């Protein structure tokens, strides 16, 4: 039986009607307030930044409690107001089991980044601007995860670009100009094609009966599931979406902006980029590309799967070739996002479910690794893996945190990373929507080999930076261990790695309804034609 | 034929209410001139205020006419006041008001003639306001000349500076040439149609089809307007004129003057030339693609911010030309009341208007920042923006908003302008349209490349120790350099025109807050509020686009 996924949004009442709006705009309000506070009053500025990001998180906690888990496939906390009447774009927000984990992830990461930056704003300083950008980012990210109108989604999707561009460009490393521009142009190119696909959807999307929908309302478009659009048309529109989301993910061969951006970005910039921004792309695939254009998705899935496994292997090999710790972590993102995309490409409930889990897990783990890289850089003033060593001796707590994070990242059972990889590999054994089993089983084998590589480069990283005696050049340098700000920023992430490692059902259970719905509607659409 | 009937002058019906905006503008312009003669020098300081208030008063009859809502037609349909014309009249007046605000201190501090400046500005605006109502080849031409001739003089307003003279002369020669070409085309159109009224031309062309004479006629008219809106390859005057002219005048030319050209094109193409869709659409397809692409690529290489904005304006004009390429790809519909069946695409029409409105505010804003920053740096080079964020963060944020808007990044207004272009192309849903959409998408990305260069300077670079003295900010220093030999060469823009070798005087630079004035602050406030409001609530502007497109009924 086909579940009515993404059914038409019912407006919430009372505080619930405001909850998502608050979640999205509280950080932006904080940013506006900060703009009028003089730059010299740094403590007040930091308090406002922390306060508004925590306020958004408080709304997030409320959402966690008020969310109806029995109906996780439905959009909840709905708001539907007019916005741009002339083009039929409305202000629609809604939260379902797919959005919830990602929204909470984004809400948690921002205050942690504020805390981490509390006493070390990267060069050239200016806490005010730094935190304002972070809050604008927060609004854009939260908004993307709850927007249920394509135009609104597009606006939020784009809002994050400039703040991240400035974050890399102003506070980044030596090669920041190149990296920031590359990041921007790549993403802009993708989103320009994406918006073309959005308007194309508006005009050509039909319902089952063939009547034009002429809507940007995402739940209506998902409901129609491509309507009676020809497979070829769907594939073309899907291509535009693929460019938009695929560059953001990033998928091989569009990944080249990522290592540069990550390497040059300041620590929290890398953290936000890895933890949340990359997820905007994968979220877009699951939320928009797959359900709206099921046949387009089926047509593209083998190619997406191919690029995904290339990404897995290429990312892993890239990691092995790196001498810089931060760049290594960046390449590992390419590999991990490859797993996520492979899960999506299988078009199965397990695959999509695992992909969403993989997004959250990657956000937590890689975010943590970038935090660590930042702290290592601060202490050693270098990230050359060859020059590090003996971290377990010189700063044992940090060394052990690196150990846990590296283990989580390589997919050790019992930690969060495992559940983002293993079920993906499993799902590729039996792809949905009539996809070729031979092909996906090949992908499965390649992906499995990729996990071995992952173990290789992560253990290699850990061994060379943490084991042994500290290098002679650091003699006489006191390497400070984890300080209180770092503890505060890292503890939640470490806990999350363990908790989700032992209780993956916390996320799987929430996402399941949605991913089953999407997979079923795809197989119904593909099978029915 | 009765000789008496030929000689006797019958006064046409005049609708005074409908003409009130034009008459008000005329009265204010006259008042400024008379006041100049009558009052002593001290009172002359009142002139910009007078001009500004006059413009705001002009808005009153526009609003009453809009509230009234009736369509008023005069002179046998040659002059029409409807919602379309009112929306654009209001836009011209508002843009003119912002330009006056930008000019106040520039003109005063530069010690230029003040009263004449405002008189000419108001006269040019009068031409634009008339253009919005013109529905006839003759009234279009008269309005065009009325708006252009004062603009030629304004471009040469820094008469001590050779570049400004060059600007004025180039603009004049190119403008007159374009007018001549256009007039020739118009006379051919008249020959074919037997009338100058848009509606009649439309009928005649439908009957005629695309005969060679029609093709020539239409191409001549369109090429004339391509000069006016600085479409490539008819754009060569724009960068030199923009760079040489006083900055407020440049802002005026790049926004209001260009908008007036587009307004005329809207009437001509969508109403008069529908019968020649086979000629018009491919012409605009090519023109739009070339204009966007060339404008963008050359803009990438500019080192002077005004020149960069000039080429950016060329490229933006290319985006505005895009809807014309699919002007007649709609479903057949019947114009209410007129009983004509047409395939005009209303969303294409709306898209141009929406783009014009948003473009006006964001571009005027960018020029306002250029003016403000030049008060501190006395330079027009992009390099001189280095470190702006460090010593004037507010100004850097404002510039960022305007540039982001020009690049089409939400939530600043420009995204919606780009969006309606894409929407139009999707609405048309033709293969040529989809290809064009992909080209627009690529161009939108290229454009960010040069806007980013300013962002990079403002945000990423340290404050410079010296800056290159600008053409504009320091007319005197420029004059001293004027003895440098001019040489004819392929200039850095790729165009083959005679240019001076670029001599730069480096002067020491001390950072500090931008010296602001009330008028400039007001200009910045109006433009930034409008740019952001249009981005966050695009419904404001799309409403006007929709209202205005009822003009198609004519």
Mind sketching the topology for me?
The complex is a heterodimer of chains A (529) and B (554).
Chain A: H1 15-36, H2 42-66, E1 76-84, E2 89-95, H3 99-117, H4 127-146, H5 150-159, H6 161-171, H7 176-204, H8 218-224, H9 231-248, H10 257-264, H11 267-292, H12 294-320, H13 325-345, H14 349-380, H15 391-394, H16 396-410, H17 416-428, H18 437-466, H19 484-502, H20 505-528
Antiparallel strand pairs in A: 1-2
Chain B: H1 3-7, H2 16-38, H3 41-44, H4 47-68, E1 72-74, E2 79-81, H5 83-109, H6 115-133, H7 137-155, H8 162-193, H9 198-208, H10 212-228, H11 237-244, H12 247-272, H13 277-299, H14 305-321, E3 333-334, E4 341-342, H15 346-377, H16 388-391, H17 393-407, H18 414-428, H19 431-460, E5 466-468, H20 475-480, E6 486-490, E7 496-500, E8 506-508, H21 518-536, H22 539-548
Antiparallel strand pairs in B: 1-2, 3-4, 5-8, 6-7
Helix pairs in contact in B: 2-4, 2-6, 4-5, 4-6, 5-6, 5-12, 5-15, 5-21, 5-22, 6-7, 6-12, 7-8, 7-12, 8-9, 8-10, 8-11, 9-12, 10-12, 11-12, 11-14, 12-14, 12-15, 13-14, 13-19, 14-15, 14-19, 15-17, 15-18, 15-21, 15-22, 17-19, 17-21, 18-19
How would you spell out the order of helices and strands of chain B? HHHHEEHHHHHHHHHHEEHHHHHEHEEEHH
| Gyration radius of chain B, rounded | 23 Å
Low-confidence stretches of chain B: 472-501
Helix content of chain B: 55-70%
Output mean pLDDT of chain A.
Answer: 89
Would you identify the regions of chain A where 5 or more consecutive residues have pLDDT less than 50? Answer: 1-7
Overall helicity of chain A: over 70%
Shape of chain A: globular
């Amino acid at each position: 039986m086909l579940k009515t996924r993404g059914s038409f949004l019912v407006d919430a009442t009372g505080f619930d009607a405001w909850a998502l709006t608050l979640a999205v705009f509280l950080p932006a309000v904080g940013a506006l307030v900060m703009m009028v506070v003089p730059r010299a009053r740094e403590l007040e500025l930091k308090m406002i930044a922390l306060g508004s990001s925590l306020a958004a998180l408080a709304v997030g906690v409320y959402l966690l409690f008020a969310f109806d888990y029995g109906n996780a496939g439905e959009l909840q906390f709905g708001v539907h107001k007019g916005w741009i009447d002339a083009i039929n774009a409305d202000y629609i927000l809604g939260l379902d089991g797919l959005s919830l984990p990602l929204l909470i992830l984004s809400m948690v990461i921002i205050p942690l980044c504020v805390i981490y930056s509390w006493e070390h704003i990267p060069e050239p300083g200016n806490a005010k601007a730094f935190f304002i950008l972070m809050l604008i980012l927060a609004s854009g990210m939260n908004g993307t995860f709850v927007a249920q109108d394509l135009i609104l989604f597009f606006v939020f999707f784009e809002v994050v670009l400039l703040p991240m561009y400035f974050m890399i460009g102003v506070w980044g490393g030596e090669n920041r100009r190149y990296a920031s521009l590359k990041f921007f142009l790549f993403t802009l190119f993708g989103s320009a094609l994406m918006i073309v696909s959005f308007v194309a959807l508006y005009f050509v999307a039909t319902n089952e009966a063939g009547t034009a929908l002429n809507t940007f309302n995402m739940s209506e478009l998902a409901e129609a599931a491509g309507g009676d659009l020809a497979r070829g048309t769907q594939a073309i529109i899907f291509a535009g979406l693929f460019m938009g989301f695929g560059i953001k993910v990033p998928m091989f061969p569009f990944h080249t902006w990522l290592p540069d951006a990550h390497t040059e970005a300041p620590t929290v910039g890398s953290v936000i980029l890895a933890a949340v921004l990359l997820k905007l792309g994968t979220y877009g695939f699951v939320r928009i590309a797959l359900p709206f254009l099921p046949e387009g998705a089926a047509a593209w899935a083998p190619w997406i799967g191919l690029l995904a496994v290339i990404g897995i292997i290429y990312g892993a090999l890239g990691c092995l070739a790196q001498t810089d710790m931060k760049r290594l972590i960046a390449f590992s993102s390419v590999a991990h996002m490859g797993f996520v995309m492979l899960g999506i490409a299988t078009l199965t409930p397990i695959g999509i479910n695992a992909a969403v889990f993989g997004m959250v897990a990657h956000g937590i783990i890689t975010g943590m690794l970038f935090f660590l890289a930042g702290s290592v850089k601060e202490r050693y003033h270098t990230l050359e893996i060859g020059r590090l060593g003996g971290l377990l001796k010189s700063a044992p707590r940090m060394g052990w945190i690196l150990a846990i994070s590296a283990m989580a990242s390589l997919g050790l059972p019992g930690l969060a990373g495992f559940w983002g990889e293993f079920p993906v590999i499993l799902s590729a054994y039996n792809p949905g929507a009539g996809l070729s089993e031979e092909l996906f089983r090949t992908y499965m084998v390649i992906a499995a080999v990729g996990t071995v590589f992952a173990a290789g480069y992560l253990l290699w990283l850990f061994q060379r930076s943490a084991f042994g005696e500290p290098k002679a050049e650091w003699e006489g340098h006191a390497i400070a261990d984890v300080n209180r700000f770092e503890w505060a920023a890292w503890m939640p992430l470490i806990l999350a790695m363990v908790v989700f490692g032992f209780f993956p059902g916390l996320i799987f259970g929430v996402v399941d309804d949605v991913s089953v719905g999407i997979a079923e509607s795809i197989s119904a659409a593909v099978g029915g034609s | 034929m009765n000789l008496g009937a030929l000689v006797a002058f019958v006064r046409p019906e005049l609708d005074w209410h409908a003409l009130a905006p034009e008459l008000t503008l005329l009265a204010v312009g006259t008042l400024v001139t008379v006041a100049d003669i009558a009052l002593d020098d001290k009172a002359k300081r009142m002139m910009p205020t007078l001009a500004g208030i006059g413009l705001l008063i002009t808005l009153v009859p526009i609003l009453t006419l809009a509230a009234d809502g009736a369509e008023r037609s005069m002179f046998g349909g040659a002059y029409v006041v409807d919602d379309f014309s009112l929306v654009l009249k209001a836009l011209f007046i508002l843009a003119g008001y912002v330009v006056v605000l930008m000019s106040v201190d520039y003109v005063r501090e530069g010690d230029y003639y003040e009263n004449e400046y405002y008189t000419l500005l108001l006269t040019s605006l009068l031409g634009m306001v008339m253009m919005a109502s013109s529905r006839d080849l003759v009234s279009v031409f008269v309005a065009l000349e009325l708006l252009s001739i004062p603009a030629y003089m304004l471009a040469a307003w820094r008469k001590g500076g050779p570049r400004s003279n060059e600007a004025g002369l180039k603009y004049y020669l190119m403008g007159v040439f374009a007018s001549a070409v256009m007039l020739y085309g118009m006379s051919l159109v008249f020959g074919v149609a037997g009338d100058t009224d848009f509606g009649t031309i439309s009928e005649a062309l439908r009957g005629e089809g695309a005969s060679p004479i029609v093709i020539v006629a239409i191409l001549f008219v369109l090429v004339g307007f391509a000069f006016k809106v600085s479409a490539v390859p008819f754009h060569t005057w724009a960068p030199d004129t923009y760079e040489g002219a006083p900055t407020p005048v440049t802002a005026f030319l790049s926004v209001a003057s260009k908008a007036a050209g587009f307004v005329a094109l809207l009437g001509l193409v969508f109403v008069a030339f529908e019968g020649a869709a086979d000629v018009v659409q491919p012409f605009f397809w090519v023109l739009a693609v070339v204009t966007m692409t060339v404008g963008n690529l050359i803009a990438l290489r500019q080192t002077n911010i005004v020149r960069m904005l000039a080429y950016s304006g060329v490229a933006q004009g290319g985006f505005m030309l895009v809807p014309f390429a699919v002007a007649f790809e709609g479903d057949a519909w019947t114009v209410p009341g007129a009983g004509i069946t047409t395939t005009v695409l209303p969303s294409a029409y709306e898209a141009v208007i929406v783009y014009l409105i948003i473009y006006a505010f964001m571009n005027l804003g960018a020029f306002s920042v250029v003016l403000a920053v030049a008060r501190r740096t006395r330079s027009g080079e992009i390099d001189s923006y280095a470190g702006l964020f460090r010593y004037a963060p507010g100004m850097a944020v404002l510039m960022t908003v305007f540039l982001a808007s020009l690049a089409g990044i939400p939530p600043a207004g420009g995204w919606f302008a780009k969006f309606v272009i894409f929407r139009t192309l999707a609405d048309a849903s033709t293969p040529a349209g989809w290809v064009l959409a992909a080209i627009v998408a690529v161009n939108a990305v290229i454009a960010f490349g040069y806007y980013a260069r300013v962002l990079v300077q403002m945000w990423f670079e340290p404050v410079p120790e010296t800056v290159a003295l600008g053409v504009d900010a320091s007319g005197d220093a420029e004059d001293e350099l004027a003895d440098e030999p001019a040489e004819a060469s392929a200039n850095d823009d790729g165009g083959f025109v005679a240019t001076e070798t670029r001599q730069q005087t480096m002067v020491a630079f001390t950072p500090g807050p931008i010296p602001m004035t009330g008028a400039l602050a007001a200009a910045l406030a109006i433009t930034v509020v409008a740019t952001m409001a249009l981005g966050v609530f695009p419904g404001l502007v799309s409403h006007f686009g929709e209202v205005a497109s009822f003009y198609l009924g004519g």
